[in-house]
């Protein structure tokens, strides 16, 4: 073997080793097991209490197979498993009550829109999912686009205490907002013609439409929700671990699997 050939082989081997080392350095590192202090911070009772409300794929629903699923529900169970503690699902009638429960440390975890108002009362990770906000309208509705909504005489349903109620209360100048106590109550209001449209994220709207034949989710959007993990304030000692957990479920594909299982629609790339 010539000296030139030996030099070429050494050069190629060195380049391959360097590429391997760079790849190892840049590959996502597995999430380390939490310390006892982190476990105590995030689940102080020894059980991770997961706050959910029924009717939203971002929180909790039953899928076509009859399984209970939803991003908050399933992601909470993944976190509980990582922490090595039992999970307990605590169900509320609507999201505003879930947020209040997190605020008051009655539950330890939920997954919701990280609005500016909520960030004042609970602690959020960076957003994991973005969802389009839209409208659901009945068959034959004269409302054919998001631009047709803000007109005199139009009644728009919103979940009571929701971020949609807060946002549309500022942006709609002619249409009237009508709060609904729950997703089921909103469906009943739409059937009865008490509201001309219902506003929330498209994941919930598509779920509602399954029980309202002929109703449709309008094309276009009036805003975006940035969904993130929420925990009670005062748990800063566990926030770094939660941020790492959020990155890990995104890079591992676990979050995407949860989204698909829950049939969460209306997502956009952050």
Strand content: 15-25%
Tertiary shape: elongated
Radius of gyration: 23 Å
Round the mean pLDDT to the nearest integer and report it.
90
Number of contiguous helices: 9
In N-to-C order, the SSE pattern is HHEEEHEHEEEEHEHEHEEHHE
Cα-to-Cα separation, first versus last residue: 55 Å
> Which stretches are poorly predicted, pLDDT < 50 over at least 5 residues?
11-27
In short:
This protein is α+β, with helices and mostly antiparallel strands and 270 residues long. The protein contains nine helices and 13 strands. It has helices at residues 3-26, 36-42, 71-83, 95-103, 163-171, 183-191, 202-209, 239-252, 254-262, and strands spanning 48-53, 61-62, 68-69, 87-92, 110-113, 122-124, 129-137, 155-159, 176-180, 197-201, 216-217, 223-232, 267-268.
Overview of the molecule:
- The protein is built from nine helices and 13 strands.
- By secondary structure, it is an alpha+beta fold.
- It starts with a helix and ends with a strand.
- The model is unreliable at 11-27 (pLDDT under 50).
- The strands form three sheets. Strands 5, 6, 7, 8, 9, 10, 11, 12 and 13 form a nine-stranded mixed β-sheet that branches. It has a two-stranded parallel sheet with strand order 1-4.
- The chain has helices at residues 3-26, 36-42, 71-83, 95-103, 163-171, 183-191, 202-209, 239-252, 254-262, and strands spanning 48-53, 61-62, 68-69, 87-92, 110-113, 122-124, 129-137, 155-159, 176-180, 197-201, 216-217, 223-232, 267-268.
């Amino acid at each position: 073997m010539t000296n030139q050939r030996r030099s070429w082989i050494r050069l190629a081997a060195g380049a391959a080793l360097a590429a391997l080392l760079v790849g190892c350095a840049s590959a996502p590192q597995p999430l380390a097991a939490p310390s006892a202090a982190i476990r105590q911070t995030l689940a102080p009772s020894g059980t991770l209490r997961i706050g959910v409300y029924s009717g939203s794929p971002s929180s909790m629903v039953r899928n076509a197979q009859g399984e209970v699923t939803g991003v908050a529900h399933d992601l909470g169970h993944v976190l509980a498993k990582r922490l090595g503690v039992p999970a307990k699902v605590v169900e509320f009638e609507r999201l505003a009550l879930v947020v209040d429960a997190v605020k008051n440390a009655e539950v330890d975890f939920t997954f919701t829109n990280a609005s500016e108002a909520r960030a004042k009362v609970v602690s959020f990770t960076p957003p994991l999912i973005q969802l389009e906000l839209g409208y659901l309208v009945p068959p034959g509705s004269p409302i054919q686009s998001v631009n047709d909504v803000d007109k005199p005489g139009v009644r728009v349903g919103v979940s009571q205490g929701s971020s949609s109620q807060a946002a549309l209360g500022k942006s709609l100048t002619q249409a009237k907002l009508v709060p609904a106590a729950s997703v089921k109550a909103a469906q009943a209001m739409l059937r009865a013609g008490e509201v001309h449209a219902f506003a929330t994220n498209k994941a919930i709207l598509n779920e509602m439409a399954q029980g309202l034949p002929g109703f449709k989710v309008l094309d276009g959007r009036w805003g975006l929700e940035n969904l993130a993990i929420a925990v009670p304030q005062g748990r800063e000692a566990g926030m770094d671990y939660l941020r790492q957990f959020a990155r890990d479920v995104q890079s591992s594909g676990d979050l995407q699997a949860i989204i698909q299982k829950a049939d969460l629609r209306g997502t956009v790339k952050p």
